[in-house]
Each structure stands twice: as C-alpha cells, then as structure tokens.
Design brief:
Elements: H1 14-31, E1 38-49, E2 53-63, H2 70-73, E3 81-89, E4 92-96
Antiparallel strand pairs: 1-2, 2-3, 3-4
Length: 97
C-alpha cells in the first residue's frame, strides 16, 4: 500500500489561529445578541486538563425567547434559555448543553 501525504502551508501560526478562532466565536456571539436576547457569557476562564493540557472554559446562556414562533412565546416564560458549557483544548473541543 502506498500512502501519500500532502501539506498545505498556512499563512499563520497555530497560536495565531487559536487567537483568531476565539475572536470569531466572541464576534459571532456579539452579532447574535441584541436587547437582552442572544448569547450571554456567564463565565470565561482558562482551565487545565491532565489529558488535553491548557484550555479555555466557557459557560454561556443562549436566550431563545425571541427566536420562537409567536404562538409558543405566549406559553413560554420570557426567561427561556439553554446553558452551554464548553472546554476548548485546541484542537479538541468538548461541549455540553
């Protein structure tokens, strides 16, 4: 069996990519948030895992009240959200809803 490997040179380092990834996640969360709706970051801190090493822990509340159809909004409370907990150990990511 013949195995071929191709490598594509990236115009940035792995550290620059990690910073860019965190920035884009934060920017997307900001764009989805308006007037108390969208994404609320509850906790954002560095963490350490013996298996994966140094990483970033983030806990978010994703408010969904305004995204529901009007007939469901009549039954659901205004404080309707989902909690998302995420551990980002680049390139490994663990997310729990």
């Amino acid at each position: 069996m013949l195995t071929k490997e191709y490598r594509i040179c990236m115009p940035l380092t792995v550290e620059e990519y990690k910073i860019g990834q965190l920035y884009m996640i934060a920017r997307h969360s900001l764009e989805q948030s308006d007037a108390g709706n969208g994404v609320e970051v509850v906790e954002n801190k560095e963490c350490y895992d013996e298996e994966h090493g140094k990483g970033q822990y983030t806990e978010k509340r994703i408010h969904l009240s305004s995204r529901l159809p009007y007939w469901i909004q009549a039954f659901c409370p205004k404080v309707f959200y989902i909690v998302e907990k995420g551990w980002n150990y680049y390139p490994f990511t663990i997310t729990v809803h």
